[in-house]
Amino acid sequence: MMARYRRKEAIILPIKYDRLLALLKEKGYTTYRIRQEKLIGQATLKKLQSGEGDIDTRTIKKLCQILDCQPGDIMEFVPDEQEADE
Hints:
Blueprint: E1 15-16, H1 18-26, H2 31-36, H3 42-50, H4 57-67, H5 71-74, E2 76-77, H6 81-85
Antiparallel strand pairs: 1-2
């Protein structure tokens, strides 16, 4: 008999990456340079720019090392309206 495993749904945190995009621009990183240096994949970058993307902790670590910053310098937690009312 095969065991059944329920797939856990990913928890999506309401994180904004506007700070990351601004810091990259400030440090002279164009979308071309970001892709060439493989900091963030093109699809992920497009999603971040449109406000729909997310990055994993390994990428956050790499970006913080390259940009000499802390995670809070590149991302912001923004609770949704329903959570804010509770």
